[in-house]
Design a protein that fits this description.
By secondary structure, the protein is mainly alpha-helical. Helix content is 49%, strand content 4%.
Length: 386
């Protein structure tokens, strides 16, 4: 049954076409029609749709993700604590067999799983109290990201048909993620794992299920076994800063030739991007191919970089050297910068005051044009020049 449903989902999910933003009952009817066309049972569809409603708190949360406006140092200090690091060691030891199996079957290092498990739910302690069915319907009906959430509604109906989702009872995060590692319904349906051997996939209550499911999801998205993901480095006072950024890669020998050295150990013999989250005077990292896989879990640059760094700490790396970064921009200044960059023809995505990858790339181009060190870190001085 699971394989049949996964096949149906894989073949039918891309063609979502329910109208967004209009009458909610008409939207539910359209989604029900799509589910029916996939071969999902009327019983499961009715059980899921009955009582489903818009949750305004979900829309408020979706519009107000101010936490991601923090810079890397602020964000990492907020999420990484001594107790979280200690608890990572406790849970690593407690579920040692599951982590070993995750490494053996999927090639995923325990540090990464522990980092996301810690950040997402504090190792299962805080999994969210939003009605998951309503959260998914709300975001699928909203016109901001229907292409992401309408397939998740269909996946949740499929999970309902399997008996793995209880509409109106299942709770989780505001964005529809479920369980200790906060996975969306489609990922659970297609890549969920029975880690404890009880015949069920229960990510809310079973740590082994959560650990193995997280590993499977990362492997599916391209995780490469036995390779690093992030390494702190020391950069010289002068170099071609325009080579930095997540959108560029050089070999270890090329970075070494430019004066980049590992803060601990040696550079890995892999292609890597030089990350300067707060510019050339702040923390510096080489990001290897596995780092980019983490964006399949979360799209935020600061979140992914912090999780990747925390994973290295869990596995024994030293705390990063914060350096002495130049002052950054306030949220209002960042919005003004994004508007200015957009007016100059740069694609920065949404004007939201968040320093994401697109804004960083645009900043770097303008720094190059102005003859400034092109490290992608916007300062009040740059804003003034623009």
């Amino acid at each position: 049954m699971r394989l049949v449903l996964a096949f149906l989902l894989a073949s039918a999910l891309p063609a979502v076409s329910a109208p967004c933003g209009g009458d909610f009952n008409e939207f539910k009817a359209a989604m029900s029609g799509e589910a029916r066309a996939m071969g999902l049972s009327d019983a499961a569809i009715q059980a899921f749709m009955k009582g489903g409603q818009i949750d305004k708190a979900v829309l408020k949360a979706d519009r107000g993700q101010g936490f991601f406006r923090k810079n890397f140092i602020e964000f990492s200090q907020a999420l990484i604590s001594k107790s979280r690091l200690q608890n990572a060691g406790v849970y690593s030891k407690k579920h040692d067999a599951s982590f070993d199996e995750a490494a053996r079957r999927f090639g995923v290092s325990r540090g990464i799983i522990l980092a996301f498990w810690a950040f997402e739910t504090d190792f299962g302690a805080v999994q969210g109290d939003f009605d998951t069915r309503n959260a998914l319907l709300t975001l699928a009906h909203d016109c901001r990201r229907p292409e992401l959430f309408q397939p998740q509604v269909l996946a949740a109906i499929a999970l309902t048909a399997k008996g793995d989702f209880d509409p109106g009872v299942t709770q989780g995060a505001w964005a529809g993620e479920i369980g200790q590692v906060q996975m969306l319904p489609r990922d659970i349906l297609e890549r969920g794992e029975d880690g404890d051997g009880d015949g069920l996939i229960t990510l809310k209550t079973s740590a082994p299920d959560a650990i193995l499911s997280a590993a499977h999801m990362l492997q599916y998205h391209g995780w490469r076994p036995n390779e690093p993901w992030l390494q702190e480095v020391v950069v010289p006072d002068q170099m071609d800063w325009a080579q930095s950024g997540i959108d560029k890669e050089l070999s270890a020998s090329q970075w070494a030739a430019m004066g980049v050295t590992a803060r601990e150990g040696r550079l890995a013999n892999l292609p890597a991007s030089l990350l300067l989250p707060m510019g050339r005077k702040g923390p510096a990292f080489l990001a290897y191919p596995n780092y980019k896989v983490l964006f399949e879990w979360n799209k935020s640059f600061v979140y992914v970089t912090t999780a990747a760094y925390f994973a290295t700490r869990i596995e024994g790396a030293a705390p990063y050297d914060a350096g002495k970064p130049e002052a950054g921009l306030s949220a209002d200044q960042m919005k003004a910068l994004q508007q200015t960059l957009q007016a100059r023809g740069h694609d920065v995505g949404k004007i939201d005051g968040v320093l994401g990858a697109m804004t960083r790339a645009a900043v770097q181009k303008e720094q190059t044009r102005l003859g400034l060190p092109a490290d992608g870190w916007p300062t009040p001085g740059l804003l003034g020049k623009l």
